Structures are given as structure tokens and as C-alpha cells.
Amino acid sequence: LRLFDDMQDRGLVVDATTYNAAIGACAAGGLWQRALRLMYDMQVQGIPATTTMYNTAIFVCEKCGRRQEALRLFEDMEETGVPGDALTYKLAINAWSKDGQWQRVMQLMADLADKGFSADTTTYNTAITACRKRSQWQHALLLFEDMQSKGVLADTTTYNAALRACKKGGQWQRAIQMLQEMEAKGIHANTMSYNTAIRSCKDDGQWQQGLRLLEQMVSKGLPTDDNTYHAAMSTCQKGGQWKKALELMEEMQSKGIPPTILVYNAVISTCERGGQWQRALRLMQAMQEKGFAPNIMTYSAAINACEKAGQWQRALQLFADMEIQGVAADTITYNGAISACAKGGQWRRAMMLMSDMQNKEVPTDTTTYNSALRALINGGQLHCAKLLMDDMQVKGIPPDTVTYNTTIGAFEKGGQWQQALQLMAEMEDKQVPLDI
Fold it and tell me: In the chain, which end has fewer C-beta atoms inside a 10 angstrom radius, N or C?
């Protein structure tokens, strides 16, 4: 660059080749501002920039984290009619991917193919990841299939990105198939590959599949970590497999892997699903002894565990403790506490909690109102229950089958058959499914 400056100082002719070399030097030194100045000087002097120059300038901007400048160069290239090559598109796809613009990435991938250029493994990996990060798992998997159909070699990074797309879309069967493909093709499946596949089994409650994958990991000698065990415990959660979750917790500790707050929360939630409220509370105490402060997930699981077991006093005590500890309650925790009030015949406390929700602008939902209705009905407050149901509809919260069943049953038992018939007619008008 000193030679370039010396040439200009001496009044020597600086042509496109010289500028190309100078921009290349900027790229080597990470001098993105100087590269942009050189591109601008060329325009002023009427020297046309070439594809190589643009590529180099885009590269140095990306290298220095100047993504917006890189994207402006690409747009300038399109506007001035300078043709892009495979490298141009690769750089642009990388920049747009980091900017979260998955639609632009998909368009560039299509343009790349239309112009007869071939995307390489890295480009596909970038595009798949861009879609996956924006929850566009279908597009991510389409790119993965397109890659395979064109014979572009996939690597561990490719499969890991595709596996994460499967997890996002709940495609656990496809995730397991991908692991099998990796083994068949001799592509190394690492800890992240298995962790992601195990997590993909969670939403469908495929805990047996998740645990089989964990066994495969161990048999292959792959290292397991706290994410592995958290993933496996999360699969147990939906099926309420609390015994297995506790076994996994013991197993990870025996391997010297300390449980994290995520692990504790997963096991507590599994105990809640399995009706093990006492174990849930013991685990909550254990995590505090380990120095972990319970968060909203911990309290929600513990409160719901006590509520489901009819331990309404404990549930309400936990709710009070949560507020003392400065943990802000959300809709789920309020719903659990209000339901506990219903089971304990504490209709006044239930109404106070609903009022507190509104004062703190915590959203109420159908479950909130259903729990509060049960509290009122259990307390013999039928008139208040009808008013609450009216309030529910005024606020645009749709009543469901549980709402109507609860109130209709209460009016029927109270001998208010006209009110019961009116609600049944309303239920039919709103096409709420009948629970026969």
C-alpha cells in the first residue's frame, strides 16, 4: 500500500490492475475502510471495478465484521451490472445469513443455480443454518435434500444443522434416519449430533427412542455432557418417567458431570408429571443446597406438582416464597396457584390472585378462568361464577369445553336448570365441542 501511495504521489498512472493489487493488500491487512475508499476512488476516476475487486472488498468487510458494508457492495455490484461468480454468491449468502435474512439467502441460492454455478458444502451449510435459526425448518430440510440430489458432499456440520432443523420441526424419525445415514456414509456423528437427535424426541414424547440414542452414544465411546443428560431427561419429562430421570441424574453425577439448573428443572418437571410432589420438593431443596437459586421454571413445576397432589397449602406457600425471592410469576405459575385455591376451597384467595395478575399485567388465559371458576363454584359462589364467565368473554378469552362443563354442572346441581340450558345453547352456538 505504501508503493501504491508512492505511485499516486509521483503522478504515475494507476490502472485497474494496480487497484486490484491494492485492494488485495487491504484484504490481507484487514483494512476494510481503505478498501472501500479505493473502490470509491476507482468510480471517481472512471475505472470499472471487476468481479474480483468486488469479491475482495466484500471479503475484507465480512472478515472485519462490517456486514452491512459487505451487503451494500453486493447490491452496488448488481446495480452497476458487474457479473457475480460463485465466490460472490458464497460471500453474499454468508453475509445475508449473519443478518438473519433467510428469504434473501434462499433467493441467492436459487440465483446461484440459475446462473449455472455450483454451491459447495460450506455454502449449503451456511444457507441451512440461516433457515434453521429463523425457525424455517422446512426450508432448511429442502436445502439439505437439494444438496444430496446434486451430489454435494455433506459433512458433520451439514448434518448437525439439518438435525437441529429436525428438532425445531419435531421430526424425530427423520433425525434418527440422519444419524443412520451418517454412519452408513462414514460421516462422524459427534456429541452435538446425538444431543440434537435426543432433543428431537422430546416433543412427541418418544422417551424410549431418546434413551436408546443415549445408549448408542455410550456404546460408541462418544463423550456425554450436561447437555446430553438434560436432553435425555427432557424426553422423560413428557412421559412422566420420573424414575428414569432420577437414574439419569445419578448416572451423570457418577461420571463426574455436575447437574446444572436446567437438569434440576427437567427432573423436577418430570416428577411433577409423574405425581411425585414430595420428590419434586426434595430436589428443589437439593438444588438450593448446591447453590442454585430456583427460577420461574423451578417454581412452576413445584407449584403444579403440589397442586396436582391436592397439597394446596404447600403450593400457595411456594407461590409466596417465589415473590419473596423476587422471582416474577408468569401465567403458568398463577394458574397453578389459582387451581390450588380451587382445590382448597379458597375462592377469595383465587380472586385476589386474579386481581393481582391484572394489576401486574400478567396475561390471563382460558386455564386461568377455568381454575378461578372452579374455585368460585367449590365455594358456592354461582352468581360470581356467571359474572366471571361474562368477564371472560368480554375480554375475548374463548371458553372451552372445560369452562362450559364446569359451569353447566354447577348450575344443574344448584337447581338452576334455566341457566344450565342457556349455557348449553350458547356452547352449541359457539361450536364448542361437547364432552359426551
Answer: C
